[in-house]
Structure to design on (558 residues):
């Protein structure tokens, strides 16, 4: 029932009242306290009482208050007053709660609030000194935020113009393109037998008027219901974290962490990883407390991320897509019920057999060692096929994937996300500098390589590859990539999987350049209303920002 390493020490990163602070701790103490056997609940209460005493002795009064409130909730929900020792324990906890509210917890909160005011004062002083140095007048935070966003847009435009000038003045040697240009941008092949390969005619994305891409808005036709969305405090360049978390809150993965069911598989894992899912769950539950007017604090979640992956330590600017991958992998590692399983993996014959046979062997090997909510909701298989130019034999592998990173298909016409997916699935020629070693021919040969999707996940992440590097030179591609509320993945499949329609639920946007920028998110709520979230600031979404869309998150229908 209780995972003691998941105690919520509520950080004070934003001004709120003592009443709201206490209400937040109480909310999590009472959250999802499920009924259980009397003897089990009694043991849990005594364990929590010991944890509360340790927390008090360590002056962690927020944790102590949480434990006492949790004990009261368990006793009352399970009618344990008549169990041995429970009535006296209940009285002890009620007295402790009243004592903490009158003195220790209030003083603890006042100290945290004082530290917050001190940090704010230091920040204002720094900004004032910078403004005086720059000859500017310190603005109101809202105006400062607006000007910062506009500055990012202006800076992005300037960088784009400078990049164009640099490229036009430079001679960059270009090799012959390795991408073939067939009449159809991608091929849909259903391999039912190796002897007689059945070729399914290429499927094309439905013809949609260009106007359909640019005319829709997020909340067009939405029937308004009561619903709000909370922002997340920016701790210092943590907009990448805030935007990804907001994106996940609109998915079934976010909903999964609203109950304590996730705790069933984490008892034997490391403490830092246990803290990852507990602090992530805490943020998710806070985001759904829409009766609150102040933003959610991600402090403990950020601290845990720092310990799980040192890349994100400190308060430097980070890539949202990289953070998404690290977070999903961390959640999987924490909740993997087959962690520690030892299994010898036999080599798979990639040539002989149907797609169904080979893909099944790859999936069986993967699921021997992996089982979690991430596998259930986010993992899918791609088919990577390589055809030898001499013997024409096809080697196929079916690796698991967490998402798709699509290139931008350069065109004078309007570019859609379907165009980018088509470029991702197009055949590539392996020639002189990347020859393929054919097992049958026993030598390095020219070949063609192609990626197609074999299966589909419940949640699909599509990242648009806007950032490019050429040695020491890097730039951001700000071409608009248009997308709609619905996406059909059938044209990019190599199997006859049904139910290929996805609905857009959130978008992570990036404003700025490779040198610096700001992440925001557009997310749909359970009431069907879209909100634009920029850290603490929340407003209803308007039209999609095709130039800055970076990660598209879709959920499969049904």
């Amino acid at each position: 029932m209780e995972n003691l390493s998941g105690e919520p020490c509520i950080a004070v990163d934003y001004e709120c009242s003592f009443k709201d602070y206490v209400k937040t701790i109480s909310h999590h103490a009472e959250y999802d306290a499920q009924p259980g056997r009397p003897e089990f609940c009694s043991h849990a209460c005594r364990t929590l009482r010991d944890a509360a005493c340790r927390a008090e002795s360590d002056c962690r009064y927020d944790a102590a208050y949480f434990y006492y409130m949790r004990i009261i909730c368990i006793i009352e929900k399970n009618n344990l007053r008549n169990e041995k020792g429970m009535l006296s324990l209940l009285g002890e906890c009620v007295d402790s709660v009243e004592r903490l509210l009158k003195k220790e917890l209030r003083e603890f909160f006042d100290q945290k609030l004082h530290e917050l005011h001190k940090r704010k004062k230091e920040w204002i002083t720094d900004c004032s000194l910078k403004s005086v140095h720059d000859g500017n007048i310190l603005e109101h935070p809202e105006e400062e935020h607006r000007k910062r966003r506009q500055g990012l847009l202006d800076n992005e435009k300037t960088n784009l113009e400078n990049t164009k000038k640099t490229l036009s003045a430079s001679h960059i040697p270009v090799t012959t393109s390795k991408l073939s240009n067939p009449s159809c941008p991608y091929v849909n092949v259903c391999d039912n037998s190796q002897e007689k390969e059945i070729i399914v005619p290429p499927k094309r994305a439905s013809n949609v008027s260009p106007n359909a891409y640019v005319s829709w808005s997020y909340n067009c036709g939405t029937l308004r219901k009561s619903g709000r969305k909370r922002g997340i405090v920016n701790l210092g360049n943590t907009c990448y974290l805030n935007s990804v978390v907001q994106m996940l809150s609109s998915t079934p993965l976010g909903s999964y962490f609203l109950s304590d069911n996730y705790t069933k598989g984490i008892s034997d894992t490391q403490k830092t990883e246990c803290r990852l899912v507990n602090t992530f769950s805490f943020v998710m539950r806070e985001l759904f407390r829409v009766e609150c007017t102040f933003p959610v604090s991600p402090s403990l979640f950020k601290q845990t991320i720092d310990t799980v992956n040192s890349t994100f330590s400190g308060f430097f600017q980070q890539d949202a897509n990289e953070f998404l991958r690290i977070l999903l992998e961390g959640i999987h590692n924490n909740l993997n019920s087959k962690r520690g399983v030892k299994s010898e993996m036999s080599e798979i014959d990639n040539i002989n057999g149907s797609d169904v046979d080979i893909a099944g062997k790859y999936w069986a090997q993967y699921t021997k060692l992996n089982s979690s909510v991430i596998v259930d909701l986010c993992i899918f298989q791609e088919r990577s096929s390589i055809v030898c130019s001499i013997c024409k034999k096809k080697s196929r592998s079916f690796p698991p994937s967490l998402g798709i990173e699509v290139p931008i298909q350069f065109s004078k016409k309007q570019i859609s996300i379907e165009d980018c997916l088509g470029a991702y699935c197009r055949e590539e020629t392996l020639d002189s500098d990347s020859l393929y070693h054919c097992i049958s021919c026993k030598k390095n040969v020219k070949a063609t390589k192609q990626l197609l999707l074999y299966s589909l996940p419940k949640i699909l992440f599509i990242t648009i590859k806007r950032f490019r590097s050429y040695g020491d030179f890097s730039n951001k591609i700000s071409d608009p990539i248009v997308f709609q509320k619905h996406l059909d993945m059938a044209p990019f499949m190599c199997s006859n999987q049904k139910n290929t329609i996805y609905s857009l639920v959130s978008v992570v946007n990036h404003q700025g350049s490779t040198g610096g920028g700001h992440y925001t998110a557009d997310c749909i709520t359970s009431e069907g209303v879209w909100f634009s979230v920029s850290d603490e600031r929340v407003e209803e979404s308007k039209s999609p920002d095709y130039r800055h869309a970076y990660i598209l998150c879709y959920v499969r229908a049904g």
In short: DSSP finds 15 helices and 21 strands in the chain. The radius of gyration is 27 Å. The mean pLDDT is 82. The first strand starts at residue 188 and ends at 190.
